[in-house]
Structures are given as C-alpha cells and as structure tokens.
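Box 3.1 — From sequence to structure: Tryptophan-rich sensory protein
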Amino acid sequence: MKMRAAELGSLLLFVALVLGGGLIIGFATVPGAWYAALSKPPFSPPNWIFAPVWSMLYIIIAIAGWRVWREGRNNLPMKLWWGQLALNFVWSPIFFSGHRIDIALGVIVLLLMTIVGFIMITWRWDKIASLLFAPYAVWVAFASVLNGAIWLLN
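Predicted structure (token representation):
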C-alpha cells in the first residue's frame, strides 16, 4: 500500500511532536546529583538504557496516535492518546525537577491506566494501534514499579 504525501507529512508531524517533545523534556530534566543520591532497588536499570528505550517508544506512540487520528480527531481513542501524552510529558519534570516521587507515582499510575484504556478501546477499531501500545504498557508498568520502589526506599 502506497502512502500519499499528505499522509506521510502528518505521520512525520506526529513523530516530530512526540519524539521531539520527549527529547526536549528528557534534556531539560536530565537525572542529576539528586537522582544519583537516591536509594534505588536492585532491579533499577542503568541510566543509559532510558534514552534508547524511550526514543523507540516515542516513535511507536506517534505511529499509534497517527493511525487513530486518521480515523477521527475527536473520538475517545484520540482523547486517550492525548491524555497519555500529557501524563507522559509531565512525569519527568515532576520526578526529576520537582523531586516529587510521590506525585510522580500518582501520575505514572494514571498514565498506565490511560495506556491500558487506549489499548482496550482501540482493539475494536485498529488492532495495530492497540498492539503498538503493548510494549509501552509493559515499560510503563515496570517504570511504575520502579517509581514506587524508589518512593518506598526514600
């Protein structure tokens, strides 16, 4: 199936928004001395793993959003997609800049619920968009446990 130029352009805009926004927030909220000094659980991954994982996730988040957007710009799946993006983008500033592990835990749990909601709702209309969110859900579930463990240890 051949993609029209307009479709490709809108897909690239989604990728630019999501990946670009994620990268900007990531650079603005780089874990510093505060994070390094926190007690972390033994299952905490090395810091270098987060950038490549999130970069790949942001690309699939963008593709899923673009697929849903093509079907309806104001439908429930699109509202859930925008909701997860907003929650995703506020987590890092709350955790790394605000040093509010507790509030960040609430945000990431809401994020996970929104991701699961997106998966469930889109399954009926666009299984590909739904499946694209599966690795995102797994990673955010792990990140939620990690956030919770850091909160308990500190």
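Summary of the box: The chain has a mean pLDDT of 94.
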